[in-house]
Design a protein that fits this description.
flat, single chain, mainly alpha, 4 helices
Length: 107
């Protein structure tokens, strides 16, 4: 657990999240496994920012450079992420958008 990192990242995260044009409940934080496992830090930072951490824990993930997932591992992680976060992502996308210039032109 890296408390120094959390202390440095929290104000940056708060500033970034505040600048987003979405409800805070539609901000998802994720942590992708690496051999340098910092999951506990990601979990604490998500709590500090009031966000939802979506970070599937899958056995057998592999990286090609100790940081980025191999393609097969990335596909498995992405599918697990969507399986877990999909319903909430769908809820966030159901918000009605105002009609854009094309939709309101001409009719």
């Amino acid at each position: 657990m890296d408390w120094d990192y959390v202390e440095r990242a929290r104000p940056l995260g708060e500033q970034f999240i505040a600048s987003l044009p979405v409800d805070r409940s539609c901000v998802f934080l994720t942590y992708v496994w690496t051999p340098y496992n910092a999951r506990a830090t990601a979990e604490v930072l998500a709590v500090e920012l009031g966000g939802t951490l979506v970070s599937p824990q899958l056995a057998g993930l592999e990286t090609f450079d100790s940081s980025h997932l191999e393609p097969e591992s990335a596909e498995r992680f992405a599918q697990a992420f969507l399986d877990k976060a999909g319903p909430e992502l769908a809820r966030c996308l159901e918000v009605e958008q105002p009609p854009g210039p094309i939709a309101s032109a001409g009719g």
